[in-house]
Amino acid sequence: MDSVRLDRLSENVGHDVRVLAWVYNIRSSGRMFFLQLRDGHGWVQAVASRDEVTAVVWERLSELTEESSIDVQGTVTKHPKQNAFEVQLKDITIVHRSEEYPISKKEHGVDFLLDHRHLWLRSKRQWAIQRIRNTLIQGIYDFMEQEGFLKIDSPILTPNACEGTSELFMVPYFDQTAYLSQSGQLYLEAAIFAHGNVFDFGPVFRAEKSKTRRHLTEFWMMDAEMAFATHEDTIAVQEKLVTFLIAKVLVQNRDDLTTLERDVAPLLKITPPFIRLSHEEAVTRLHSLGSDIKPNDDLGGDDETLLTAQFDKPVIVEKYPAAVKAFYMKRDPANLSRVLCDDMLAPEGYGEIIGGSQREDDYAVLKQRIEEQKLPLKDFEWYLDLRRYGSVPHSGFGLGLERLVSWIGGLKHVREAIPFPRTIYRLRP
Ligand code: 4AD
Ligand code: MG
Questions:
Q1: Which one, out of 101, 109, 201, 387, has a CA that is 20 to 30 A from the CA of 148?
Q2: Which domain holds residue 50?
Q3: What DSSP designation does 389 have?
Q4: Which residues have a Cβ under 8 Å from the Cβ of 105 and sit 6 or more positions away?
């Protein structure tokens, strides 16, 4: 008999089916067994009554342990009241009888759970999170395709820094040193000259010493880059993308959001236009809220939280002081001490989810910036070439996937948003 996926049981009410699954939970009343099963697609309760199954089946049920893998047959019934289905179990084969499972239903400390991340992924909450992440990944591809962006894969091993030299992971590379990519942006800038609008999506690395709930050392970023595009043009795409992604999760992952006990009311409010503030305006507001941020400071995590608490939509803070931002950002012609950049800050204290900017497109100015920042000019010659052969105004942004998953899922820490988190203290499992 072909097996049936647990998310397709509704199509099989009244029929006998075969299910391949794991046992999430076992309850027994002596005459009855109640098994919570999961198969990767869904969850169901299987019920067996001593009077209705053979002695062999009853014996196998009695031997079952949590997390055992099983092959069962039974009849699908609909719960009389709830919109739920059950399997009236008739037969069972134990594929593998699990040893005593280390993650019990009692509360565990987060370090214990992270040490057992390879098992923790099976729990319902973690399952829901990865499903939301998957919707966002698919949604990003859908949106970018719809908007005419071509996917370009940027390299992970690179000779130079994209986002400053202090957070680089070094890798021995034969007789040279390579760095793990912090962002594919510079390579995407090359690709716009071939394809117009492009994006990449992959793991990036930051040797972040930060221990905050927003920082990982390995995370996934979608970089987008557009030719003949200004600072304003990139903000319009960012806003449309985030709106699209939230709407998609609200449709596809309602049950998962419920599993996470995520209040969806704040997500339903995410419609364009988002809030727009200049960095200068943001600083003024922050002062009125009690922050001691200096006029030319970057916004710290606490400032981001304080500021976004004032609004129920994402806040786009633009035109930061040039000194706190990357070398490639174009200066604001109206105020040369500032750059044409934006950070999109998520509401509810989740902080920066997107960083974007218009890029410096003038050869001489860009060369000067590279020299000012004491970056190795030799390694940036190819990047400067892009300003020598048909340079255009261009802009782009990078979206941090785990930050987005955390916000949408209402997670406390970004480490739950990625299957195997890497932080300053964690390289295992
Ligand atoms: O603001 P960032 O550093 O921007 C760039 O790397 C640009 N080159 C992107 C571009 O223009 N193509 O990083 C982009 C996003 C941040 O807004 C944040 O969401 C996420 O990446 N991010 C992190 N997420 C988790 N852990 C970290 N350590 C992160 N650092 C950045
Ligand atoms: Mg940033």
A1: 387
A2: 6-96
A3: S
A4: 25
